[in-house]
TrEMBL record:
InterPro entries (UniProt xref): Band_7 (IPR001107), Band_7/SPFH_dom_sf (IPR036013), Flotillin_C (IPR031905), Flotillin_fam (IPR027705)
Keyword Coiled coil: yes
GO molecular-function term, one example from the UniProt record: protease binding
Identification of the protein by name: Flotillin
Subcellular location: Membrane; Endosome
Recorded name of the encoding gene: LOC109104215
Similarity comment: Belongs to the band 7/mec-2 family. Flotillin subfamily.
Source species: Cyprinus carpio (Common carp)
Domain Band: 38-220
Gene Ontology annotations of biological process type: protein localization to plasma membrane; regulation of myoblast differentiation
Pfam family membership, one: Band_7
Keywords: Coiled coil, Endosome, Membrane
């Protein structure tokens, strides 16, 4: 199988992008083991598919080797470059049962004219050597020509020197004359400027005196204007403000006096009401105290009979409070199999009632029943 691997715009070790095309001859190995490997890899695939696999493998190795070489190494030694590709790619394609019979570089070019620049460099080197030879010959001729010109210039320089010396002497004499003339002119000009400065100074002093007088008059006018403005402000602002402040002060004092009088009236009202309430409370207290005193005298006079009367007055209230929950009860049922036992329970409760009243009030109802025959009270309870 003939393959043409191609790598476009691959950067070399120096970063120059080049395109390389090659031609490779490959075949399936006939060794029994390697043939079995090739069958395993490519059985069922067409020739075009086999070519595509091998071609991609070769292009991959070609691309990797391009990145390790310079353009000069690739271009000047193509055989070495092809040998490197064969050595690197042979093991990989060999593991697929493929053998590389040959691999050569077909073409190397770039889009930036880098390779053409290399040829131009060589041509320029040859041209440079030729130019150097011509320049050396011209240099020798120029040296001789310069030596002749130097001799001529030396003679001319001597003549020019003598002429310059004569001219310099003339210029020195002219300069001395001009210096003397200029000195006199300068002295005259300086005397004139000095006198002019003195006159200008006198004029400036007169101007300053005039400005001082004008400034004093201006200050006097401003002081009078300030006095006038101050009087105007007093008449238009200060006096009305003082009158308004006095008015507000008087109004405030009137309001204050009004509030004080109202507060005093309220205070007197509260005090009168309090005195009336105190008198009323005192009268009620005295009446209640007198009533309690009379009751105490009556209780002390009648003794136990008075206590009994109080108890009898309180018993209906106590009975009402005790019986209040029973008012909401429709029916009370006492469960017992023995009718005599129910009667005994009722009798026991009635027997314990005097003891409970004695504990609460200190009145012995049993004694009162015996002494006073209070059967009605007992039956009521």
């Amino acid at each position: 199988m003939t393959l043409q691997p191609k790598c476009e715009d691959v950067e070399t070790a120096e970063g120059v992008a080049i395109t390389v095309t090659g031609v490779a001859q490959v075949k399936v190995m006939t060794d029994q083991d390697l043939l079995a490997v090739a069958c395993e890899q490519f059985l069922g695939k067409s020739v075009m598919e086999i070519k595509a696999v091998v071609l991609q493998t070769l292009e991959g190795h070609l691309r990797s080797i391009l990145g390790t070489l310079t353009v000069e190494q690739i271009y000047q030694d193509r055989d070495e470059f092809a040998r490197l590709v064969r050595e690197v790619a042979a093991p990989d394609v060999g593991r697929m049962g493929i053998e590389i019979l040959s691999f050569t570089i077909k073409d190397v070019y770039d889009k930036l004219d880098y390779l053409s620049s290399l040829g131009k460099t060589q041509t320029a080197a040859v041209q440079r050597d030729a130019d150097i030879g011509v320049a050396e010959a011209e240099r020798d001729a120029g040296i001789r020509e310069a030596e002749c010109k130097k001799e001529m210039m030396d003679v001319k320089f001597l003549a020019d020197t003598k002429m310059a010396d004569s001219k310099r002497e003339l210029e020195l004499q002219k300069a001395a004359f001009n210096q003397e003339v200029n000195t006199k002119k300068a002295e005259s000009q300086l005397a004139y400027e000095l006198q002019a400065a003195k006159e200008q100074q006198k004029i400036r002093l007169e101007e300053i005196e005039i400005e001082v007088v004008q400034r004093k008059k201006q200050i006097s006018i401003e002081e009078k204007e300030i006095e006038r403005t101050e009087k105007e402000l007093i008449a238009t602002v200060k006096r009305p403000a003082e009158a308004e402040a006095y008015k507000m002060q008087q109004l405030a004092e009137g309001q204050k006096l009004k509030k004080v009088l109202i507060a005093q009236a309220e205070s007197e009202k509260i005090r009168k009401i309090g005195e009336a309430d105190a008198i009323s409370i005192s009268s009620v207290g005295k009446a209640e105290a007198e009533s309690m005193r009379l009751k105490a005298e009556a209780y002390q006079q009648y003794g136990e009979a008075a206590k009994t009367a109080l108890v009898l007055e309180a018993l209906p209230k106590i009975a009402g409070k005790v019986a209040a929950p029973l008012a909401r009860t429709n029916e009370i049922v006492i469960l017992s199999g023995d009718g005599n036992r129910v009667t005994g329970e009722v009798n026991r409760l009635l027997a314990e009632l005097p003891v409970s009243i004695n504990a609460l009030t200190g009145v012995d109802l049993s004694k009162e029943i015996k002494e006073n025959n209070c059967f009605v009270l007992y039956l009521w309870i």
